[in-house]
Amino acid sequence: MTAVRSRVLDLFAGPGGWSEGLRALGLRDVGIENDVIACATRAAAGHATIRADVAAYPTAPLRGKVAGLIASPPCQTFSAAGRRTGAEDMELCHQALEDLARGRDTRDVLRDACADARSLLVVEPVRYALAVRPEWVALEEVPAVLCLFRHMAGILRGAGYSVWTGVLNAADYGVPQTRRRAFLLASRIRPASPPVPTHAENPGPDTLFGPALKPWVTMADALGWGYTKRPAPTITGGGAGTGGAEPLGNASRKAMRAAMADPHHWAWKRPAYTLSGTVGHVGGKQTGGHLNLEPEEGACLQSFRKGYPFQGNKGQRSLQIGNAVPPLLATAVLRPLVPLQMEVAA
Fold first, then answer.
1. In sequence order, what are the residues at sequence separation of 6 or more whose Cβ sits closer than 8 angstroms to the Cβ of residue 45?
2. pTM over 0.90
């Protein structure tokens, strides 16, 4: 296997969640990312990046040069936190996939027909996979995209891949957050399967077949509440995407300080709820009130290493953090997929 062939290509690479997951396995990727701030974060973290539009980037020069393909297409149109225009565009996405499988690229025509042109970005990994023919593929998206992943699975099986699709809970792999995401895992060189959980909400006792799983990591443990006993950091401006005022204000930081002082609060008993692209808060009325997060706290709950160099203002850092794949989950997903003999990419 040549050093060129051992490269991993990361589409919609963001700030580097997948990249950090790979690095834990001794591997590196080359990301394609169009957002200038995310590119700056990747550069500061030491991750190679091509600043480009994934949908416009040519695949022909990549043929024979990529061993692994990773992609987390933008989820805004499919996310439950958004306007769900992706649901209106679902039929068009299925049509684009079917056309690509038959060797026809109708993306331009179908994109014009979409309620939101971003919806069609979800098909890009199949365009790359069919053109580049990597040895393995790993895709991640919000659960609403699972039906499209199943369609992609059929196309990839027809191209000689073993494929698994399903939804994984990040908390089952040591991430202090109950983030549920759809995954597609495919390989031409080994059977594709989901990673074996390392943690559980109710681990149970050890058995004759081995020790029990580890318990879920709580939000309080992840943020070190039981060790530091310090107040939460002072709230600052910059919560909005433009660097404007924090949307939830000092009241939520007061709720955070109260939670730190109350060992009966849910955050001491369980992982955080799913972080969104705003990161600004976690929880809600049904869980005892919003807890307002600083970006650094959100990064910790996403399992990024301490001091990860997110660039931009507070809103831009929060957006990158909330949209990233948790590195611990990325490592768990990739470990059974990546060949052990794979060389570190240059």
1. 15, 16, 19, 20, 308, 309
2. no
* CATH number of the structural domain spanning residue 104: 3.40.50.150
Are 143 and 170 found together in one domain? yes
Instruction: Decide if 149 is inside a domain.
Output: yes
Residue type, 231: P
CB 323 within 8 A of CB 16: no
pLDDT tens digits, one per residue of 6-60: 699 999 999 999 999 999 999 999 999 999 999 999 999 999 999 999 999 999 9
CB 98 within 8 A of CB 166: no
| Other C-beta atoms lying within 10 Å of the C-beta of residue 121 | 23
Domain count, the chain: 2
| Number of residues assigned to the chain | 346
Tokens at residue 191, please? 């059977």
* Distance separating alpha carbons of residues 5 and 22, to the nearest angstrom: 16
- pLDDT tens, position by position, 62-78: 998 999 999 999 877 77
